[in-house]
Amino acid sequence: MVKDAIQDxxxxxxxxxxxIVTSDIQxxxxxxxxxxxxxxxxxxxxxxxxxxxxxxxxQLMDVIPIAxxxxxxxxxxxxxxxxxxxxxxxRGKITVHAKWGRTFALLAGDYLFTKVYELMAPxxxxxxxxxxxxxxxxxEGETLQAAAAKAGDMDRETYKTIISRKTASLFEAAAxxxxxxxxxxxxxxxxLGTYAYNLGLTFQIVxxxxxxxxxxxxxxxxxxxxxxxxxxxxxxxxGGGIESTATxxxxxxxxxxxxxxxxxxxxxxxxxxxxxxxxxxxxxxxxTALDELPDSEARDEMLELVDLVMERxx
Amino acid sequence: MVKDAIQDxxxxxxxxxxxIVTSDIQxxxxxxxxxxxxxxxxxxxxxxxxxxxxxxxxQLMDVIPIAxxxxxxxxxxxxxxxxxxxxxxxRGKITVHAKWGRTFALLAGDYLFTKVYELMAPxxxxxxxxxxxxxxxxxEGETLQAAAAKAGDMDRETYKTIISRKTASLFEAAAxxxxxxxxxxxxxxxxLGTYAYNLGLTFQIVxxxxxxxxxxxxxxxxxxxxxxxxxxxxxxxxGGGIESTATxxxxxxxxxxxxxxxxxxxxxxxxxxxxxxxxxxxxxxxxTALDELPDSEARDEMLELVDLVMERxx
Lengths: 314, 314
Prior knowledge:
homodimer; mainly alpha; Farnesyl Diphosphate Synthase; 16 helices; 2 strands
């Protein structure tokens, strides 16, 4: 039954996202719908819905605008990321900036941010303070990542800070806001926040692993893209440092293409295995946080979501 | 005495702006301070402060974060505008994207938007709904402007829509929020909104005129910059259409440089004079809106602000 409720909730989120991007400036509607309908995993809205249900919330439609807003934050950053990364495809579709050009992509991203604000504003101060904080952290994480990539300098601590801010903070905000609106007490809201935060770290580490080893057809984007953009190196150094281990791989076995070479080296270096272990640890922390909650179908779904994030291949 | 209060308020706004951009990501602090300290006219915060005082508000410091937030919205859009316009200077200083590059400028602009949200969130739903609406309109106005410039197609109606959304809406929001926080009744809040909205239209028309006829030294940017970016044509067509009037100017008298030629044509065509008339009409509407308010020092200051906007030369 919770599964059905979540399904209904996600359908309502889709409708909300399509409605909210509508503008009398046709280009903004078109670009908004283009990115919204390109099929994300919707894991952030799911967190808001599940947290709402886990604390006993009974009017699921009340949380839809929050669930849509957290997905919209993510979507807005994708549009701006793709400009900065010169990416031509996203989720198997042409990117907004490749289709409409850089100027309009920048404005479309800004527009989606303002739509987050429109969705959130009616909820009042407590919710907007949480959302504002998550948005700030996200941009800080993206900036730190761009700076580290540019400097070619990424240690384990920096990697952790980046994924914490750019991914885990918004996951945490989604669950906290859902739990608050559902009427959860302070301790339960905090527990659900911890769950979602660690799920976010897990999600991002798995994402970075998939960039190195994933099947391009399943991913909807070329493998090694992040690597090519100097980001995969994060995981490499996080996983023990490519410099020290690369020599273990015989040069003769490596392909000619530099990106393919680096990917092969990473696979051989043990970095991916170390990253997998870290993902597993974060996943366990997420599960443990749920010990604070009474047994419920929603809680079971949240445990299952951890497994899904760990096992995903795209 | 109101003059002193406004001066104190603006000093507090500067402090607030400097504090709020501080991040442990040094680059964001640096870029934020760079643009914040480049000396804007601060007309939007003044509107929030004046509206607060005009309705009898007595705790001016309560409105400072709102006043800072409206300036911050404007500042964030400047950073993104300068990317799209490839502008190298702004207010006589190097632009953020020229100094830090496009990637970081895009992120710095996003960061400033999130800081608007942080400033506003504690005020609750009523204020955030107004601010969200103004931000949406602003981005819509910018998009419409970029689309019209690209198409080289700008009629009078489109020009009015653009300046209404990209400039007047935020002016209106600043005054409305200030008046609400000061305890103004609905009718007075609406009157101050109408005042500020029309002041915004006036401000933008004067701005567009200054781009054509202004002294580059006073402006802190080259004259004809907007024109070069296909925007000055807005005012031209708004003022009667350059195509039909340009023939009145003898070709021989025109300079060789195409931008200089277009500027000369605009000056000669009467477009500037027509735009001046329109600015005067909007200024009168702004003044008339203040008839709803009882006599006060703050009201006098608001009338004086209309004159200052009409007479400014940079």
